[in-house]
């Protein structure tokens, strides 16, 4: 009952935050930062308590894909909300809050195994998991920035006066933040993969090879775009599409197989 209550509170306040930001998306003064922070803070706190009660149980820890997804989403929400305190993130907030609302609600209905286990604290494993989580969150945020960049750039090219007088951030600011995040995320992903090869056995074992191969493909795509921008000045729609494709491949690597095993196969 507690989990259901926390889920409802978190999703409700995420929806309220999303609605508020969307209602003033093209307003010159933008959404009220104070109201946005209040609504999102309540949602974030409820989301955090939901995670604590879902993961840590009296008989072990539940590390199912649903809870891992909720944790990843929470980190992204906190990161984007924090960034919005200093830099305009009017387009990112409704996307992040809206997805968080959908995910928290879906967590009540998605069938999944309860994976109860005692966690052995090994420095190598903790390092790999931490770097992997950070890399994924940073690269997903970079992907959101790339979508924001493409949206603003497209509206400007159409000479849309609404975008000029809106509260949306300047295009060059978005582009600079995008490539800073992309570079940081690629470095973190590189370190995560290296830590996996150094500290973990069986990265190319049958049960893990698909995850390793997909992660390497995503890394190659992110690295190519990053190096291409730094050395050749790549930018624009092709770069945005490449970043989105790489993020999709990385998501498949992180969640694809577990989703099939814990959600789809669990139905049969």
From TrEMBL:
Pfam families: Cytochrom_C_asm. The chain crosses the membrane at residues 33-52, 64-85, 91-110, 131-152, 178-200, 212-232, 238-257. Signal peptide: none annotated. InterPro entries: Cyt_c_assembly, YpjD/HemX. Keywords: Membrane, Transmembrane, Transmembrane helix. Coiled coil: none annotated. Residues 41-264 form the Cytochrome c assembly protein domain. The keyword Membrane applies. This is Cytochrome c biogenesis protein CcsA. It comes from Pseudoalteromonas prydzensis. The lineage of its organism: Bacteria, Pseudomonadati, Pseudomonadota, Gammaproteobacteria, Alteromonadales. The gene is ccsA.
């Amino acid at each position: 009952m507690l989990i259901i209550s926390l889920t409802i509170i978190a999703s409700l306040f995420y929806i309220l935050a999303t609605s508020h930001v969307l209602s003033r998306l093209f307003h010159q003064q933008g959404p009220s930062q104070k109201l946005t922070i209040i609504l999102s803070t309540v949602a974030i706190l409820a989301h955090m308590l939901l995670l604590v009660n879902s993961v840590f149980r009296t008989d072990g820890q539940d590390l199912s894909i649903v809870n891992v997804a909720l944790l990843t989403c929470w980190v992204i929400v906190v990161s984007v909300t924090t960034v919005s305190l200093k830099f305009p993130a009017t387009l990112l907030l409704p996307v992040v809050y809206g997805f968080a609302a959908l995910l928290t609600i879906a967590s009540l209905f998605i069938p999944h195994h309860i994976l109860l286990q005692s966690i052995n604290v090994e420095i190598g494993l903790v390092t790999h998991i931490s770097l992997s989580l950070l890399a994924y969150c940073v690269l997903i945020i970079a992907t959101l920035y790339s979508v924001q960049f493409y949206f603003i750039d497209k509206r400007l090219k159409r000479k849309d006066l609404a975008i000029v007088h809106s509260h949306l951030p300047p295009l060059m600011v978005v582009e600079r933040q995008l490539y800073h995040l992309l570079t940081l995320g690629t470095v973190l992903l590189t370190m995560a993969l290296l830590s996996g090869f150094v500290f973990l056995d069986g990265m190319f074992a049958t049960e893990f090879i698909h995850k390793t191969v997909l992660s390497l493909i995503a890394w190659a795509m992110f690295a190519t775009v990053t190096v291409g921008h730094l050395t050749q000045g790549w930018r624009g729609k092709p770069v945005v599409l490449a970043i989105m494709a790489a993020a999709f491949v990385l998501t498949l690597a992180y969640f694809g197989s577990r989703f099939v095993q814990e959600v789809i196969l669990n139905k049969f």
